[in-house]
Amino acid sequence: MTTPYLTDEEIAAITAPLTQAAARCRHIEREFGLKVRRKPNGQPIVGREDLAAALASRGRKRGAHQPAQAPGNVVTPDWDGLRRKVQSRVR
């Protein structure tokens, strides 16, 4: 039977190589954007469905479900824009 929350071993796996409870909580909050509750011993409590939703939305944000670019549309870098940006920082 699957529990509604991740086990300590599962949390250790997604936060490896971190070992301290506070570091694990920070990592989960920053990496997955989840509000972390803590157990009395300080270890994070993370809901399975919360993590699944965070992973699904993260995939959409990074373009995992974007259609492939049409073959005729070639993207080229804006070299002039890059030069202007670098020159404005040098001055």
Write structural notes for this entry.
- The protein is mainly alpha-helical.
- It has a domain at 1-57.
- It has four helices and two strands, in the order H-H-E-E-H-H.
- It has helices at residues 8-14, 21-32, 48-61, 79-90; strands spanning 37-38, 44-45.
- It has a two-stranded antiparallel ribbon.
- Strand 1 and strand 2 (44-45) form a beta hairpin.
- It starts with 7 loop residues before the first helix and ends with a helix.
Q: Give the biggest beta sheet.
A: 2 strands, antiparallel
Extract low-pLDDT stretches.
none
Strands across the major sheet, in which order? 1-2
Give the structural class.
Answer: mainly alpha
- Reading the helices and strands in chain order gives HHEEHH
Tags for this model:
91 residues; 4% strand; 2 strands; mainly alpha; 49% helix; single chain
Strand and helix layout:
Layout (H helix, E strand, L loop, with lengths): L7 H7 L6 H12 L4 E2 L5 E2 L2 H14 L17 H12 L1
Antiparallel strand pairs: 1-2
Offer a concise description of the structure:
By secondary structure, this protein is mainly alpha-helical. The protein has helices at residues 8-14, 21-32, 48-61, 79-90; strands spanning 37-38, 44-45.
